[in-house]
Amino acid sequence: MSLLRQLLLSVTLAILVILVGATLFSIGSARQYLDAQLQGQSDATATSLALTLSQPSNQDPTVRELLISVLFDSGQFRVVEFLDPTGRILIRREIEDGRDDRVTAPDWFSHLLPLERHEAQRQVTNGWSQLGVIRLQANDAYARNALWDSTARIVTLTVGAGILWGLFVVMLMRWLRRALQDDVTARVQAMAQASTGDELPPVRHPAMLELREVSQIIARTHEQVRATAAEHQSRIESLELELNQDTVTGLANRKYFINELRRLLEQSTPGQGEGGHVMLFRQCDLQSINQTMSRQVVDQWLRNMGQLVLEVLRERLGQQAWLARLNGSDFAFIMPMMPGPVAVRVAQTVGEILQAQRIQLGQAGLCRWRMVLTDFESGEGLSDVLSRLDEALMRAESAGHTNVEYVPGEDLRSVTGARGGGEQAWRVLLRNALDEGWFALVTQRDVSTISDDRVQGLLTLHEPGASEPLSGYLFMPPAVRLGLSADCDARAVSLGLGWLRTHPGDLVLRVSLASILNEEFRGEVAGLLVEAPDQSARLLMDLDSYGLVAHRAQVVAFAAMLREHGVRLGLRRFAEQPEALLYLHEIRPEYIRVSGNLLAAQAASPGARRLLEAVQETAREIGAVVDLAAGS
Prior knowledge:
With 632 residues, this protein is α/β, with parallel strands linked by helices. 56% of the residues lie in helices and 16% in strands. The chain has 22 helices and 18 strands. It has helices spanning 3-54, 61-73, 107-112, 141-193, 209-243, 254-266, 286-292, 295-317, 340-356, 382-399, 409-416, 423-436, 472-482, 485-502, 513-516, 519-531, 533-536, 545-550, 552-564, 584-587, 596-601, 606-622, and strands at 77-83, 89-94, 119-126, 129-138, 252-253, 275-283, 324-325, 330-336, 369-377, 404-406, 439-445, 454-461, 470-471, 506-510, 539-544, 568-572, 591-593, 625-627. The strands form three sheets. Strands 11, 12, 13, 14, 15, 16, 17 and 18 form an eight-stranded mixed sheet that branches. A six-stranded mixed sheet has the order 5-7-8-6-9-10, sandwiched between helices. The model has no long low-confidence stretch (mean pLDDT 79). It comes from Castellaniella hirudinis. The chain crosses the membrane at residues 154-173. It holds the Pfam family EAL. This is LapD/MoxY N-terminal periplasmic domain-containing protein.
């Protein structure tokens, strides 16, 4: 809404308020005046009639009734009564409600603005003795008619004044709009089209002081426009640079990354942009880092990390290489026209730099990076590539390893088919699987040197019509992302207890950390174990060492619940979280699985040997077995 329109609208509202207020005050004053008149009339007439009836010549009942009837027939009073000293009515004349034809005011008006029914009473005496009481109630028919006529005139006058003001505002708006269009618009257009030496047209309404001032301002602006054109162009170029750059790290931003990836996917020139690879890596603990360190330190750390990765990319890909920051914790870069083996080596090099730049987060250990890699082909849809990256990231977050998660497009398409790999597709599939019971438990020999009479249970999803079932490695990462991991793991526990009823030996089940942190999951598992005490004694829960460090209270509580029902515990991926050594006594696992990386490093690293010795010593104290032949 224009400023002029706002001004006129505000003035119009003010006038309407004034008119309505004046109308209300006028009607109220007239009503108060009529009330006062009715009361005065009642008092005066009651006094006069009482004096008349007090005369000895008028004390005859017939004369008294005649005088009262004459007064009532005048129509000025609604009720005329004469009462004896005891309060008994001797004479009464009354006009019933709705029977007075002299009332012309509508009923709704009488209910909206009612008049008070004024009463007056006086004593009738004969000397010192009281003969009775005369009581009068004024008839407000004439007053209501007068109030109605007055209100109608005032409202008509107010509405007429409002209509006239509205017409005046409309005409004024048209005139002002026409004046502005004729003068200001014409001069602004001429200024935009005129060269440096051209003069602007004269003002067409010189009598208007406001337009003359506007004309002078436009003229001065016209002189400044040409002088500032170069500066504006420079600022535009600077804004274009900032539009494609992250303000904290100085790297490219998400918009630049998406545009470049779309450009490569849409290229169809033979020999150019036939395909390539995209790498994305996420800092999983950025929120904890921000809570531990100051903002300036974190920003500087991100800038240094970005520059180190960018230097490696320029060494491998050339000076035209770039790195983009997609959001606070996600970074990505494109490797166009690069075969898979070379892209994997570049991704591993970047991963080594990221691992070397990790920050200590107190007792939770070092911060974690999750790295994913996928390929793309020219002509492929942008959403397909982004969905594949998201799928790979979900797998990496669920697996918890420090390696680069590589998900080629063909592999993902062969698994998901036409369903795609987006979150919505996974949500529908997992919901249907939970509702329809598409899950099954597949067992295999546990890769362990601890016991030969032990199998590991793997949850699989058997979708009707699918060529082969989906393993938990594929659907559990989306389940964790969608908050459905607790339902899936609870189904795995139920199937595992069912398997133990019909098979000998022990069964090992892996449980995701996201499920352990869910209180409803803990309660549901406890209910399942209560119903199967014999099978619970042969069940082992395989926990992640990272959960014991990062979410110690929840994991310890979950372990205590399992021990109450006879379930034994195991701990995997200990080499990635050696800090878990401090809390082994709190969960007392039956075995501790050490990955091959630590075993390979002990030959050349005294620290690795000391750590392995400490693990074995602690395991002996708490009655656990160290599994040196198992992976993560």
